[in-house]
């Protein structure tokens, strides 16, 4: 009986990498609920967290998908800035319609991702390096084009409302719906479609996947492209809200998205991870940001706190993987 | 007699320079100066500094090599300074972002005969202890904060609660500005709470940090930001929460967004430390020293200049010509 229970537990936990982050998530939330119940358990706070999680989360979904396929893409933090910057230039200088400009720049973003993937696969250089190079290259292009000055979207367009406009008076924004929608789509794709299976198998063992007839190159290229595309979309969400793009936009996003993914149960080595977990990871980071201010924590402590949470959540994940997945 | 002759030759050379600047065939740069700073070109403030330095370089036919770490890093700054010294330039213009870390390399440059001018951030120690640079070109950061806060107090306004949004926690210049703001308020109203908030340089995070703070402390009626990366999201939050006019917003550094906000009455005032001048002037002073032996004064202030509605027109001209203020 006990052994049956254990078998059930093993299979349940190994199929749900988000267990670790859920535990961290609930305990952190509990701290805030106890500490500042009147401020924390309100709709504006929830909306604030969702808004903050929106951009980070959308970018993290792509990063997680790619990590499960066994690769990194650090250049997403620059794609996050380049896409809205390109849209502003097209709209303000050439009077292109914002929708058309956005679609064009998202296609460019997808192309950049595929290019990073192509270089990675063809040369065998780790994607950590190729995408780092692309990140520096794009930063240089961005600086050369803008001269370091912020650019401003001059006119309001209906598309900015679609991407990240206000809904009601309490701080809810359409960006939150994008995050929820994309989380559902990607979670479904990962766990219920053949493409999701290919992604897992490519990340777990590329050679085995190839022998089973999976096109490793194609799967990886698409995932590289998707990570870049989603980062671009997240950048457009930031533009839609602030109407200004500073050339520093997105600095550090490459690591924060990896943080969300790792918190959410993705392994750095690939082959294992969760989209729901990544969503919770981004939500956890946003919640900690908002909660610490509400709880009047000293400003200097926030980063230390995130660091501790990351390490604890990773320990939980590692424990689960060692114990239940690899059977060690 | 001798003086007259010198003055004459100086005059002739200046004329020659003016001709060169006027489009005559450019000759090889006369001198090479290194401008070593903590501010990467991605920061709009430093983009202006860079522009000022390059404009001066072109005018004087000298070469200015601007070098700065891409992201804020004292360690990288020290490395860049060491590389600059190794290049043996005719002069080094340097931000004393961290006087402890920069003390040894800066002194070594000076002892090797490379003149050094400090810019943007001075060595805060007493004169006999600090790095023996020739001059400091820039504002006093403490004053910038102090006068920005004093502006509101002088108008007879008594704040209930003040929050300072810092987008680069750990930057000594920001800490000094924050202290200036705090002191100016506490001097008159010792009981008014003044707090620093870590907003990070990511706009979405900054916005939600301000929102959460305003939720936790609804009595907050004054926000100070320490740069464009703080004022842009703060403006957006005040608009979203419909607090424009109820919460006063004041900031350091200016661009079009800030200027428009002052015009629209969304932002009370901004303090400028004239980044363009902080690029331009040290190059000129270095040139005058290297070429003619003119020793610059120990401190050349470039600010603080308070910009509110009454000064908008002048500042607009400045922004149109230099890109910012």
CATH class descriptor name of the largest domain in chain B: Alpha Beta
Low-confidence stretches of chain A: none
CATH topology of chain A: ABC transporter involved in vitamin B12 uptake, BtuC
CATH class of chain A: Mainly Alpha
SSE string of chain B, helix = H, strand = E?
HEHEHEHEEHEHEHEHEHEHEEH
How would you describe the shape of chain A?
globular
Order of helices and strands of chain A: HHHHHHHEHEEHHHHEHHH
Low-confidence stretches of chain B: 1-8
Keyphrases for this structure?
heterodimer; A: 328 residues; mainly alpha; ABC transporter involved in vitamin B12 uptake, BtuC; two-stranded antiparallel ribbon; two-stranded antiparallel sheet; 15 helices; 76% helix; B: 325 residues; alpha/beta; Rossmann fold; 6-stranded mixed sheet; 11 helices; elongated; disordered N terminus
What features would you describe in this structure?
- The complex is a heterodimer of chains A (328) and B (325).
- By secondary structure, chain A is mainly alpha-helical.
- Chain A has 15 helices and four strands.
- The model of chain A has no long low-confidence stretch (mean pLDDT 89).
- Chain B contains eleven helices and twelve strands.
- In chain B, strand 3, helix 4 and strand 4 form a beta-alpha-beta unit.
- In chain B, helix 3 packs parallel to helix 4, helix 7 packs across helix 8 and helix 9 packs antiparallel against helix 11.
- The N terminus of chain B is likely disordered.
- Chain B has 325 residues and is an alpha/beta fold.
- Chain B has a six-stranded parallel sheet, sandwiched between helices. A six-stranded mixed sheet of chain B has the order 7-6-8-9-10-12, sandwiched between helices.
- The chains are: A mainly alpha (328), B alpha/beta (325).
